Amino acid sequence: MIDLRSDTLTLPTEEMREAMATAALGDDSRDGDPTVRRLEEAAAAITGKQAALFVASGTMSNLVALLAHTGRGGEVLLDSESHIMRSEMGGIASLAGLFYRTIPSVRGAPDLAEMRELLNAHLMANRLATALVCVETTHNSAGGAILPLDYLGRLRTLTAEKGIPLHIDGARIFNAAVALGVPVARIAGLCDSTGFCVSKGLSAPFGSVLCGSSAFIERARAYRRMVGGAMRQAGIMAAAGIIAIERMVDRLAEDHRRAKRIAEGLHAIDPRLTDPRLVETNIVMLEIGHTGADAKTWIAMLETHGVRAGAWSRKSLRLVTHRHIDDAAVGRAVAIVRTVLSAIVQPVASRA
Question: How far apart are CA 191 and CA 157, in angstroms?
């Protein structure tokens, strides 16, 4: 079975398993876990931030960042298709107590002119203060799109002028850095805080790391406890995270190359299925609205032939490459999509 549902499906490497088995341990929420501290120090160093905090997930990373930046209350500006809005169960409002305002965006990049109009540094009689601006790179809903460095630079200048913090949801920020050919610190230097997953393409089994200033991480540590994220002998998991950022970053380029090959193969079958020019990292959006079958039908037929895909909407699927998808799997996946498309389109044409 070729499983393209997500890069969260990656399994730890043998080196990770060995490191997990031999990790030095302590109580992370009391005296501290030495392996967790090593991961946090490594994460801070690689992102160019003063400090870092190991948390359970990307969703927890974003929630804790929202709380640590705002202390509850105020308005957050972000993209309506961001992970915070689409996939985090409304935690921004129900748990962080924040009002959100979405901004029209192109491939995950909120319009800067609109942003300038909405940024408000101070509470007014008829207007909330802007507590935080959030963006995402790579952008999941935009098919792994990367926010360009010049765009982030202009956004950073804009928020800094108003004294408003900027948080980057960087769950796949290493994918962005590899695709841009820059150190991850180059991206992280354009925000006040960022969080990244050591799972997904980096292949660790668990966790994310939130990075920022020492004062921000001190507040974040308190909010992590508030939301139930204090951990005990977490070094078992942190050990795999250390291997992830030390050994697994450069190989992400292979995932990007294979995603592009899938997109090119699909485009050759039918240009309406996908546009290879939009595939910048390891995510391919497969558009099926013109085929006469919905996502549920496509998923069932693909799995029958040996490919697992995820529904993104009724008319689109998401295909994600990762460490367990090799070149042979890419070729087979494209051939299977061709087979399924033929099986779907021919009955539709005969009924017409």
Answer: 10
Tokens 């991961």 identify what position? Answer: 39
Q: How does residue 352 score in pLDDT terms, banded at 50, 70 and 90? A: low
Q: Which residue has the higher pLDDT, 219 or 347?
A: 219
Helix (H) or strand (E) holding 35: helix 34-47
Spatial distance between the Cα atoms of 99 and 115, rounded to a whole number of angstroms: 16
Helix (H, G, I), strand (E, B) or coil at 44: helix
Query: Residue 332: which domain range?
Result: 252-351
Residues 4-30 as b or e (16 or more Cβ within 10 Å = b): bbbbebbebbeebeebbeebebbebbe
CB–CB of 197/162 below 8 Å?
A: no
Question: Where residue 253 falls among pLDDT bands split at 50, 70, 90?
Answer: very high
Same domain, 302 and 171: no
Alpha-carbon distance of 262 to 265, in angstroms, equals 5
Q: How many domains does the chain have?
A: 2
Q: Which pTM value belongs to this model?
A: 0.95
Write the secondary structure of 287-347 as one string of H (helix), E (strand) and C (coil).
ECHHHCCCHHHHHHHHHHHCEECEEEECCEEEEECCCCCCHHHHHHHHHHHHHHHHHHHHH
Q: What is the CATH number of the domain that holds 205?
A: 3.40.640.10
Q: What is the pLDDT of residues 38-65, one digit of tens each?
A: 999 999 999 999 999 999 999 999 999 9
